[in-house]
Amino acid sequence: LQQRRGIRLSAPAPIQVTVRDALNQALDEELERDERVFLLGEEVAQYDGAYKISRGLWKKYGDKRVIDTPISEMGFTGIAVGAAMAGLRPVCEFMTFNFSMQAIDQVINSAAKTCYMSAGSIAVPIVFRGPNGASAGVAAQHSQCFAAWYGHCPGLKVVSPWSSEDARGLLKASIRDDNP
Q: Residues near 162 by Cβ (< 8 Å), separated by ≥ 6?
């Protein structure tokens, strides 16, 4: 009726979603969509993630799909890479990307280069996820940014979202990609 009288209605205000919630939504949707997807990392299950990215996912999907690991980045990254090579789609979460340096051999030499070294016959559908760069209160050990370094490694696709919409879409696209 208001439109017939020439009154213009403004669009409803968009719902603001935090990056944390956007990442959680993306993980939830992909875990539900594809049973091969699973999440592993330190504190991702019972604690709901160090930054609460995986909040509620362990309760919804259980121990086989959301897996707490020991503080051993080299070990759980190797497990995730092997699982990806076997046809699963792991999301390997680092509490901070500074800790990915403990698993640099698995990230670069096992995951990133496998497609090239196998002439494209072996896919490695894995996502390495976590916060990267400076943050308040985490000191020098946790404030380095490795995006440019990883971006120069053949076989890795590196994304750095700007907004919650970017974070959600890029995580979903990354999980669906057949290589790291």
A: none
pLDDT, tens digit, 9 for 90 and up, residues 116-157: 899 889 999 999 999 887 766 667 777 788 888 999 999 999
The full DSSP string for 40-100 is: EETTSSTT--TTSTTTTHHHHH-TTTEEE--S-HHHHHHHHHHHHHTT-EEEEE-SSGGGG
N-terminal to C-terminal alpha carbon distance within the chain: 53
Domain at 19-176: CATH code: 3.40.50.970
Residue 116 CA to residue 95 CA, distance in Å, equals 29
Distance CA 110, CA 75 (A): 13
Cα 168 from Cα 161, distance rounded (Å): 9
Q: Is 118 left (phi over 0), alpha (psi -120 to 50) or beta?
A: alpha
pTM reported for the whole predicted model: 0.88
Nearest to 128 by CA among 142, 148, 108, 144: 108
